[in-house]
Amino acid sequence: MSRKSDPQTAAGSPVYSMTGFARHRGRVNDSLGWTLVLKTVNHRFLDLHMRMPGGSEALEMKLRRELKSAILRGHLEVTLTMERASQQQVEMDHGLVASYIAAFRAAAAEHRLRETPSLQTILQLPGVFRTGVQAGNGNGNADVRTAEMEMTEASVLAALPEVVSALQKMRGQEGAALVTELAAIADRIAMLVDRVTELHGPMQRAHFERTSARIAVLLGGAADRERLLQEAALLADRSDVSEELARLRAHVEHFRQMLAEGGELGKKLDFLLQEMNREANTMLSKTAGIAGAGTQVTEIGLGLKAEIEKAREQVQNLQ
């Protein structure tokens, strides 16, 4: 019987999923900050999609170079946003305050009142205070903006290894879960292959006997027994799936070995599963129409194809 897989004992290279997410916030100075977001999903190749603020072309090129060396496969969205704190300047409109006071005194004189204007009341009147917003750490000067972009570039690149590490950690956790699921599928495939192997001998014998009987009936005893047995054996041999079963067992062992070794597995495992599916199809075509054990083999073969398809769906997410 086939041995069980135990992915927890594997000491190979880490296996990464192509699904991951990481976010990091940093600051350039008291008024300028940034947020870098990395998001990956599955893709046949490495596909970098950058969303960067204007004027950061040099930083974008450096990020591309660093990320290509760290992420081997997947659709990677990189989003960098800048956050600038505003400095509020509150000013009093001295002319308006003077106008309010003058109007108050004029009204008091007109109505012969001895009231004096209340400063607290005047300061609460509309328009006395106005707010000015100035960009933090700058006055629109091109030299200031250039200096800020250079500092931003240095800050982002310094934090990039930490962001990539967080992304890879999540991808590694997802990859480990996929390896566990794939190992379980490999075990189920091996069990199905073992069941077909157990049924194969009885199925061949029964098929040979039925074929011999049919030929004898058709020929009505006109052929000698040796010739009849040769024809029956030839027809029965066409339903022999021992080679397909041997190749399936070899593929399962290779599949387990690759899971244990780890590394970049997505494309390799997908190819191997295609080979398994081809062997399962051949087995089904050879056993189609055979009664008895052949019917059971057909049912098992369909289950085998279903497990292979489940594995292929999971493998699509592996780097």
Describe the overall structure.
This protein has 319 residues and is an alpha+beta fold. The chain folds into 3 domains: 7-86 and 141-172, 2-Layer Sandwich (Ribosomal Protein S5, domain 2); 87-135, no CATH class; 174-315, Up-down Bundle (Butyryl-CoA Dehydrogenase, subunit A, domain 3). It has helices at 57-70, 94-110, 119-123, 142-219, 225-237, 242-261, 266-287, 293-315, and strands spanning 20-27, 32-41, 46-51, 74-84, 86-92, 129-135. The chain has a 4-stranded mixed sheet with strand order 1-2-4-3, with helices on one face. A hairpin with a 4-residue loop joins strand 1 (20-27) and strand 2 (32-41). Helix 4 (142-219) runs antiparallel to helix 5, helix 4 (142-219) runs antiparallel to helix 6 (242-261) and helix 4 runs antiparallel to helix 8 (293-315). Mean pLDDT is 82; it is low at 5-10 and 132-140.
| Mass-distribution shape | elongated
Which structural class do you get from the secondary structure elements?
alpha+beta
The CATH topology of the largest domain comes to Butyryl-CoA Dehydrogenase, subunit A, domain 3
* Distance from first to last alpha carbon: 31 Å
Which CATH architecture of the largest domain would you pick? Answer: Up-down Bundle
User: Can you summarize the main beta sheet?
Assistant: 4 strands, mixed
Tell me the total number of β-strands. 6
Tally of distinct domains: 3
User: Which CATH class of the largest domain?
Assistant: Mainly Alpha
Strand content: 15-25%
Radius of gyration equals 38 Å
**Mean of residue pLDDT?**
82
Fraction of residues in H or I helices: 55-70%
Low-confidence runs: 5-10, 132-140
Count every helix, treating DSSP H or I runs of 4 or more residues as helices: 8
Strand arrangement across the biggest beta sheet: 1-2-4-3
Q: Give me the strand/helix succession.
A: EEEHEEHHEHHHHH
